[in-house]
Structure formats: C-alpha cells, structure tokens
Predict the structure.
Amino acid sequence: MTVRLTTLCDNLAGSVGYVAEWGLSILVQYKDEAVLLDTGGTDSVIRNAIQNGINLNQITRIVLSHGHKDHTGGLRHLLQILDAKRQVILHPEAWASKYASRAEPVGSEMHYIGIPYSKEELEHLGAKFTLSREPVWITDEIVVTGEVPLQTSFESIDKNLFVKIEGEYQMDTVPDDQALVVKTSKGLVVILGCAHHGMINTLQHAQKITGEERVHAVVGGTHLFRAGPDQLEQTIAALEEFNVAHIGVSHCTGMPASMALMQHFKDRFFFNHVGKVMEF
Ligand SMILES: [Fe+2]
Ligand SMILES: [Fe+2]
C-alpha cells in the first residue's frame, strides 16, 4: 500500500495550469484516509485541485501544521465548497495572535500573520475543531505529531516571529508547529508544514511517537531559508544518518538550501511544487 501525496499549494508551480502562492497544502492519501495538511493562504487549493482533477469532497479531515495564515487562510474557502462538516486538527496555540517582523531592527515593523478568521466563523462553515498539544492518531498508521521538542543543537526558532499578548509583542516559540506522519511498511513518510521547530527535531519526534526508526521520505516546508552553513551541513549529516530515501522540499526551504540538498542527495532529492504527485 503506497502513500500518495499531491501538492495543492506551494510558493512555486511545477507545471502548466497550476497557480502558485506563498503557502503550503498537501493532500495525503493512504488507505481509506485523504488528509489535507494545511490549506494554503487563499483559494489556490481549490483552483489547483480542479486543474489536477481532484474532488476535494474526498477529504476525510484537515490538519493544520500551525497558525500562520499562509497555511490556514485557505480554510474558509475550502469549507465553503465542501459538502459536509469536517474535523480540523490543530494545536490550541495556533489561535494565538501571531505577527512577523519584516524590517530591521527586528520588531520595528509588525505584520499580522495569524489565522485570518474567527473560530466561530469557521465552525459555522462546517469546521469541527480538535485541539491537541499531544499526538493525535487518525488511524493506527497516521499521526499528527503534536508539539515537537527542541533537541538538536543546530536548530532554533525564527527570531522574527512574535505573538501579541495583552498588547505586548513577545517572541513566538511556535508551540503549535507540528507535522503529519504515515507509518508505512518501508518506514515513516513525514509531511512537514513549515518545520518551525526544525526538520531534524521533527523527524526525531516522529520516530519517538511511532516507535519506527526508519524514515523513508520527508516532504514539505523545512524553514531552511534562514539556515546558515552550519545548520545546513548538520541537517544534511542528520538526514544521511536517517538514511532517508526521498527528500522533497517546498515552501520555506528557499533556493540556497534547496540547491545544497539537491547537490548532496542527487536522485533522492526532488522539488515539491504545486501539481507534484508522489507515491511512496
Ligand atoms: Fe510558518
Ligand atoms: Fe509557512
């Protein structure tokens, strides 16, 4: 039985007819489940599903990797076209009032980047929210990781991210950051949203909660676009140690890190852009 991944939103379009936007959404099909990890920022998931011939009503549930709007802004659009209510799994802190600093010095210019809708509005449109800090097992083989512990020495949280609490900006430790994991006969297939807590931390956590050591594939946003040479080098070394067979990067990986991974992993590497369909 293979896991089928279809990328429905990414910063880049992989072929003709697809639309790109800054964000991420990947449809994960395995056995009877069709789980949508993230929803992109606007309506690109709907447009790209039409292009791909995918009926979005087959989605069994939606998982949100964290509360940033480039991963959650498409939810309202999606709920408006689905034929019935859907479970939406997320961490409670995804609802925090999230900001990004986009100017120097850090903190001088703040932009709101949190979920752009109220919980009530989305519930009215058919979302049935499951809030959890802990892993949520969808089936015996598909799990949402819950909070990812920070363990490696070389991964850290982006210092440009903030939450506003009682009018004050505080560093956002992005506790809501999580990934989706499928346990297959070949090992784990790990689908990342942004990996704000680090790709390697996420893989280690996936191993721990599933009890499966083998990591077969890792796909999605890696947040390596701010990584320096040291982090990149150590990430590559760790991926080698995991002996990952497929590495597909999207979204916040950025070109320099993508190039480094491509040069190192060669045919084990692929660009995971809109329209890409992979089976593992
Ligand atoms: Fe993010
Ligand atoms: Fe993102």
